[in-house]
Structure prediction request, 102 residues.
Amino acid sequence: MEELSILAAKLPWEKSPSGDLQRKVLRVGADGKPKVALVRLEPGVPSVAHAHEQAENHYVLEGEYESQGGSYPAGSYRLIPPNKTHGPLLSKEGATLLVIWE
Prediction:
């Protein structure tokens, strides 16, 4: 593994493959899939419910989102186990998350 340094502010926001949120991929794994990303939830636009083969970590940087009956404001950490369906994620005012896939 090599050291990596990125100024995220210089990266453009891009649509996710599902098209329901925006992201800035900070690190890609050997498999070519994102491992670390900033994810932006647009106000009032729900993400698609989905699952991953690996655990997914969320840290809410700005805003707040709701999912599975829970509410996650800025400063919240959430761990989603592998193969667990999560979503839709919905933010009334918009939110930015740091997402790490293990």
Notes: The longest strand covers residues 56-67.
